[in-house]
Amino acid sequence: MDKPVIGVTMGDPAGIGPEICAKALSASAVQAVANCVVIGDRRGLRHGLKISKIEGIEINSIKKIDEAVFKPGTINVLDLENADPGKIKTGQVSKAAGKAAFEYIEKATQLAKNGEIDAIATAPINKEAVHKAGYKFDGHTEILASYTKTKDYAMMFVSDKLWVMLVTTHLPLKDVSRKLNKKNILKTIKLAHETLTKLRGRKPKIGVAGLNPHAGESGIFGKEEIKIIKPAVEEAKKLGIDVKGPVSPDAIFYLANAGMYDIVIAMYHDQGLIPLKLLSFNRSVNVTVGLPIVRTSVDHGTGFDIAGKGWANPQSLIEAIQVAAHFSKTR
Question: pLDDT tens digit string along 204-227?
């Protein structure tokens, strides 16, 4: 069977994106499962190879996907020529870097929608830089949802230890409670059910975390569990979904790691990401579910503090490409 073609966006060119792209696409673990094309700037990738001290790799700069040459020792770059090293300084937030990073996502989305690539794996962007460039999105997820006109979507994180899906994403903690409602919790439960059923060929066991300590303790520590979370769970059960909750947030991740649940529905970003990263940092992958295209991403940021030093770990990008390749075959 032919290997899927994965478009790997280079991320913010001032961060560790070029370095981890160079390392990941040179890895046999990636070459074994996918044909990859970096969507970025050849100068950035060349710099990534240099600081990584990777030799013997040829950069094939292309303008169209069908110009790619998939063979050992070659990295294909769909070169947008938009990351001028004279205007972008490594490790610094800039409008130029934010604009370049956004354009990589934009191009990758277009290619995926047109069927020219089978999936997208994204290196990290810097949200401040993207905002400086004039794009008012909270992150990759919202950009992709907008460009694919997707209304029902969610962030799912997968690892060897734990799978998590988020009801809310990039919000100040003080705003989480008022953004939660029965509708968006039920939507997330349904997305988890549909996604895992498709991937695994069976109904998943879903655990839904409470919001408050001890899942509210019958309303003593908060009413969200009684008013919105439990009604959403009960509605999901009526649809034939195998779901339990609200479960105390301080217990549910332990139970999932022990095998009681296939996936946990977390109410907010850090509730789900702290246990996930504690168990599987650099080995977890962000998947945007609900899109008409496959998109995976690393589980970390742009690493401005280590950019340009050759220290960046490519493992999360390697995992993201592997997951993208696998998921692309299930669509």
Answer: 999 999 999 999 899 999 999 999
94 and 232, same domain (yes or no): no
pLDDT (tens digit per residue) in 272-324: 999 999 999 888 999 999 999 999 999 899 999 999 999 999 999 999 999 99
What domain count does the chain have? Answer: 2
27 and 98 inside one domain:
yes
CA distance 66 to 230: 51
- pLDDT the model gives residue 1: 54
Residue 225: give its domain's CATH number: 3.40.718.10
* Residue 268 structural domain: 152-288
Known binding-site residue numbers for a divalent metal cation:
170, 214, 269
Residues 146 and 12 in one domain: yes
Sheet with 119-122: list strands edge to edge.
58-62, 74-79, 35-40, 5-9, 119-122, 295-297, 285-289, 154-158, 163-166, 263-266, 206-209, 243-247
**Last residue of one domain, picked from the residues 269, 288, 307:** 288
Contact assessment for residue 127 and residue 265, using Cβ atoms and an 8 Å cutoff? no
Q: Which residues are annotated as a binding site?
A: 140-141, 170, 214, 269, 277, 286, 295
Nearest-Å Rg of the Cα atoms of the chain is 20
> Residues in the chain with pLDDT < 70?
1
Q: pTM for the full model?
A: 0.91
Which residues participate in the annotated binding site for substrate? 140-141, 277, 286, 295
